[in-house]
Amino acid sequence: MTDMPHGARPRTTGARDDGRAAGPLRYFGVLLLLSGVLSVLQGIAGIAEDRLFGVPRAYEYRFDLTGWGWIHLVVGVALIMAGVAVLRAMPWGRAAGVTVAAISLVTQFMFIPYYPLWSISVMTLDLIILWGMARIAVT
Question: What pLDDT is attached to residue 56?
Answer without folding.
Answer: 65
